[in-house]
Amino acid sequence: NNDQYDKAISHLTKLENRCASYRDTSAVLFFIAKSYKDKGQTSKAIETYEQLLKIDASCSSAWSNLGLIHHEAGRVSEAKYALNQALLYNPENPYAHVNLANVLYKNGEFEEAKNLGLKAFQLNNQIPAAASITALCYASLGDAENAKKFCQISVEIGVKKNIFINGYGHNGQPPFSKSILLTACVIFVFSLTSLIETAGREMLRIVA
After folding, report:
1. Where are the alpha helices (DSSP H) in the chain?
2. Are the CB atoms for 180 and 133 separated by under 8 Å?
3. Which of 83, 127, 135, 207 is most exposed, with the fewest beta carbons within 10 Å of its own?
């Protein structure tokens, strides 16, 4: 609840004043920002991430989480910039690849989004959202076989990890939520290319 977040932020803020290095400070600010985000105070989360990035501009996870916040608010340009910065500083950050793939998918850039999803899955094949976004992209591109393949993978990982919940996971990455499960199952049912393309567009509306 909010009281717990308030206590966490208070303790972390006190800890920030005792940090001996910029890396310690950036680590504390990262968790303060996450606490604000989880509490629903996105403006404070953005402010804190920006404060962190002034201290440590190379923090890929901070850029990725900042990009996710902008994406959720519909700020496409800001989201793309932040997520590209995340990948600039750490090209092997799978969560940044997934987050950027989601931005591009919603923007209709299916091919590039698919490639990002595949890269994320290559870097970490236990991220359900990496398989889910890849499946959605394949569906939108009319590739029924690969859409089914990655739908199955995403469901298997989600069941294994038991994370069919709403919210956010590691590094702010959306987990395998109920809406993603619905998307995967519906696409899996469709076998004709034309229907898969339609399903991909309709499910984007549901997941949004």
Report:
1. 2-16, 22-39, 42-55, 60-72, 76-89, 94-106, 110-123, 128-140, 144-161, 178-189, 193-207
2. no
3. 207
